[in-house]
Amino acid sequence: MLFGVKPMVRAVVFDVGNVLVDWNVRAFYAPLIPDPARLDWFLGHVVTPAWHFQHDAGRPFAETSAELIARFPAEADLIRQFGPRFNETITGPIPGMPELVAALAARGVPIFGITNFSHEFWPPFRAEWPLFDHFADIIVSGAEQLTKPDPAIYQLALRRFGLAPGEGIFIDDRDDNAEAAAANGFVAHRFRDAPTLAAELRALGLLPQ
After folding, report:
1. Would you call 94 helix, strand, or coil by DSSP?
2. Strands (E), 15-167
């Protein structure tokens, strides 16, 4: 589904987690916490999305983990593993998306990224994914200390990517992020799967019919 006005879209801007790659904290911790009820408790009370979002906002793992261990000392070992083993929370590419990115690159379409991602976790993650060789630039929230859906991160993206309002389509798996992008200079697509996105990109003339 597209949000916003769509004049001459000439560039594609991707979110990363759950658009290009599958980010799954449960899959990482499941072998370490075999009891399903305890795993649910751990992910609901200890290593939560709100705790991890601090990394996306730029806080260092050394600080956030120390604070969390002080609250849950019995979980110290499991908490400590999150940072150094972060790449294991990425279970693989989203089906069809590496091929879609390669098809855009082959047509010379400018490709960019805006991701909520820790500035510490990003470099080792990026090193494992040559998919991002196709990207001209990627805004990493932890490095900028700006997170989606803050309007400022989309405004920064327009300036840094050299895009006028309406020249970029932004793809994200969250409605709030897509809607904020549409309110701040982007055409926005709420991501569901690669075939649906490919159809939108064909309709915009970015992929062949």
Report:
1. coil
2. 21-23, 90-93, 111-115, 137-140
CA distance linking residue 120 with residue 168, whole number of Å? 28
Q: Please state, in angstroms and rounded to a whole number, the distance separating the CA atoms of residues 209 and 86.
A: 39
What single DSSP character describes residue 89? G
Q: Which one, of 30, 73, 25, lies nearest residue 50 by Cα?
A: 25
Q: What is the pLDDT along the chain (209 residues), one digit of tens a residue?
A: 555 545 589 999 999 999 999 999 999 999 999 999 999 999 999 999 999 999 999 999 999 999 999 999 999 999 999 999 999 999 999 999 999 999 999 999 999 999 999 999 999 999 999 999 999 999 999 999 999 999 999 999 999 999 999 999 999 999 999 999 999 999 999 999 999 999 999 999 999 98
By C-alpha distance, which of 52, 57, 47 is closest to 119?
A: 57
